[in-house]
Amino acid sequence: MFGISVPQLIIILVIVLLIFGGKRLRSLGGDLGSFIKGFKKAVSDEDSNSQQQLDKPKGDASLTEQQQAKQSENK
Length: 75
What we know:
The chain has helices spanning 6-55, 59-74. It is mostly helical.
């Protein structure tokens, strides 16, 4: 996996556990999970917004131009 063998991965995990400790490592995992969840939600919201803009009929733009022309004629 990524050029790291299992013994090397275990050594890295032990070092991380020694640096951060058990409690802090657990909270870091929770924070990382909530960050990933929020990031995925933001990406999916942005995709749905862009898809709605693509699905929006182009007639609306000409309609608003016609409305603007009528409003300027009334003034």
